[in-house]
Amino acid sequence: VSQSRYWRMSGGKDYQHSQFNRAVEAKRQAGSAFKTFVYLAAFENGLEPDDVMEDKKINVGTWLPGNYNSRYLGEVTLQNAFANSLNSVAIQIGKKVGGKAVADIAEKCGITSKIDLNDPTIALGTTEVSLLELTSSYAAIANDGVPVLPYAITEIQNDINQVLYQRQSSGFDAVISSNSAQNIKKLLRELVS
Mean pLDDT across the chain, nearest whole number? Predict the structure, then answer.
């Protein structure tokens, strides 16, 4: 097997100095990277990339969230809202589908950190996650909705090359519909093109 098939994880600069593995143990707010799950939840609930919502000033109780540039674009497709990372639309989608739907899809894809279902700010990525769980959840999307469990050991051999352990395939089924997987991939592709 070629070495190019393997990825290496580095959780710090010097293990002797600090054993804290930042890739696995450090948690940070996901920010706009979490909006992917908001849009996935929307697609799982019947919305499509070409559906239109209004990017506008909104208030959620006493919270007055805004777009990063304090400008609003009016009517936009979900694809355009995603490409422009419009907070207003993400929050409206979150309210429309519900926090439970957003949390469920994020967890199905690989987010293991606790998500507050009643917190409307989750649509903007305020949930703290590790780099490993965010990466594995995006890998599920790339894998057509089939979860990808990160692992460190593929095989263990003894000194005479007998295989003592070999990791078996996880055998998961897709956790999102084929249509939703294609829709979110379309949005992600458009974002970088």
Answer: 89
